């Protein structure tokens, strides 16, 4: 199994539930960005040693939270020394609205991964977009870049769609699998 690290900020617990589902699928380690936008020293060490890094943030006002952006700015220390060069990357987001401009958050993650010289892993799950589709189907949001989920603004994290969480779990497994194949190819 690859060494996968999920680094995320969660404002109300929904993004944390997604992170937990992704970690379950990837067999990965979770590191939360705190409410002041800081990551522990152990988190930075884990990111430097990871084969795969998966970013997570809620989408607020059309982009990632300011706490995640602070983390991203601080990651320039790793950028200066190419610490994350050729790592496998992924990301995920949640918002209250069906659209909620979540695509902007995912594109922010793709760009951040690119700045670090990383390799992005797409979702790889066809959308649930036929009349028979239900709220708890995988990829009900129809994303291709990475998982995006929707949680009603007045819903508790425990009320999240089972399909959204399964989408996250499957994505975690996909990112970890790609990282494992990539690591094996480098050894060969």
From TrEMBL:
Pfam families assigned to the protein according to its UniProt record, in alphabetical order: FMN_red
Cofactor requirements of the protein: FMN
UniProt GO MF annotations: electron transfer activity; FMN binding; NAD(P)H dehydrogenase (quinone) activity
GO cellular component terms given for this protein: membrane
InterPro entries (UniProt xref): Flavodoxin/NO_synth, Flavodoxin_CS, Flavoprotein-like_sf, FMN_Rdtase-like_dom
Record bears the keyword Repressor: no
Lineage top rank: taxon: Bacteria
Domain Flavodoxin-like stretches: 4-176
Key words of the record: Flavoprotein, FMN
The keyword Flavoprotein is assigned to this record: yes
Protein name: Flavoprotein WrbA
């Amino acid at each position: 199994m690859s060494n996968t690290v999920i680094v995320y900020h969660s404002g109300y617990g929904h993004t944390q539930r997604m992170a937990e589902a992704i970690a379950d699928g990837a067999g990965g380690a979770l590191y939360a960005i705190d409410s002041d936008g800081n990551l522990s020293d152990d988190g930075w060490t884990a990111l430097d040693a990871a084969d795969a890094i998966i970013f997570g943030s809620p989408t607020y006002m059309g982009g990632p939270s300011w706490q995640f952006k602070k983390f991203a700015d601080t990651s320039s220390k790793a950028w200066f020394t190419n610490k994350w060069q050729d790592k496998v990357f992924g990301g995920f987001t949640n918002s209250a609205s069906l659209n909620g401009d979540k695509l902007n958050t995912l594109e922010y993650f793709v760009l951040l991964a690119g700045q670090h010289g990383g390799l992005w892993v797409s979702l790889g799950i066809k959308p649930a977009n036929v009349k028979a589709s239900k709220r708890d189907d995988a990829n009900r949001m129809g994303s291709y870049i990475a998982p995006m989920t929707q949680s009603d603004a007045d819903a508790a994290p425990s009320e999240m769609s089972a399909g959204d969480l399964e989408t996250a779990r499957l994505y975690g497994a996909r990112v970890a699998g790609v990282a494992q194949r990539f690591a094996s190819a480098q050894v060969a």
